[in-house]
Amino acid sequence: MPQVVVILGSESDRKVVDESQMPTLLDEVGVSWELSIISAHRNPQELQEYCAEMERQHAMMFIGVAGMAAALPGAIAANVGARLPVIGVPLISDVLDAHDALYSMVRMPPHMPVAVCGIGKSGLINAAMFACQIVAAHQEPIRAGMERYIQKHAKPAQVAVQKGKVS
Fold first, then answer.
1. Burial 47-78 (b: 16+ CB within 10 A, else e)
2. What pLDDT does 162 receive?
3. Fewest beta carbons less than 10 Å away: which of 25, 43, 67, 94?
């Protein structure tokens, strides 16, 4: 049973997901996940059936990854009926950068929430971190996995102090 379900809008999105190291993050923390490619536009029936099956398997949340019109996270939210959290990650495209995808995710109607954690690779990492935080709130082993991940990957902030001559 996957705790986090990642759905991509197209096969071309897989490269960005792999480059982001999102799957590695989920693995390191100990969160079970499943990745599928289902277009909200081309395969609406399959998306509906898949979302229902993932709910039956007790998935805890969904991450929808898409560029351009980016209807996928909204379509996932419509299919799960606000029963489960949906995180959307807009991807940069050749036209309009990621503005079109971002706007489609943040302009959801009331009672149909989609969280957006950023754009592109950093958005994918933040979405995975947010998903891990949600799971960690309910499962101590995942909380410990988050602590290990943060300790391993934390980069100390640089602090610089500059002083001038005091007269």
1. bbebbeebbeeebbbbbbbbbbebbbbbbbbb
2. 81
3. 94
Annotated domain spans of the chain: 4-153
- Binned average pLDDT, 10 residues per bin, the chain of 167 residues: 96 95 97 98 97 97 92 96 95 83 90 94 97 96 96 82 79
Residue 17 has which token pair?
């997901």
Q: Could you tell me which of 38, 54, 34 has the C-alpha nearest to residue 46?
A: 38
pTM for the model stands at 0.90
Residue with tokens 């990650």: 89
- Whole-number pLDDT of residue 103: 87
Q: How far apart are CA 156 and CA 136, in angstroms?
A: 23
- Residue carrying structure tokens 């489609």: 104
Helix H, strand E, coil C: the string for the chain is: CCCEEEEECCHHHHHHHHHHCHHHHHHHHCCCEEEEECCCCCCHHHHHHHHHHHHHCCCCEEEEEEECCCCHHHHHHHHHCCCCCEEEEEECCCCCCCHHHHHHHHCCCCCCCCEECCCHHHHHHHHHHHHHHHHHCCCHHHHHHHHHHHHHHCCCCCCCCCCCCCC
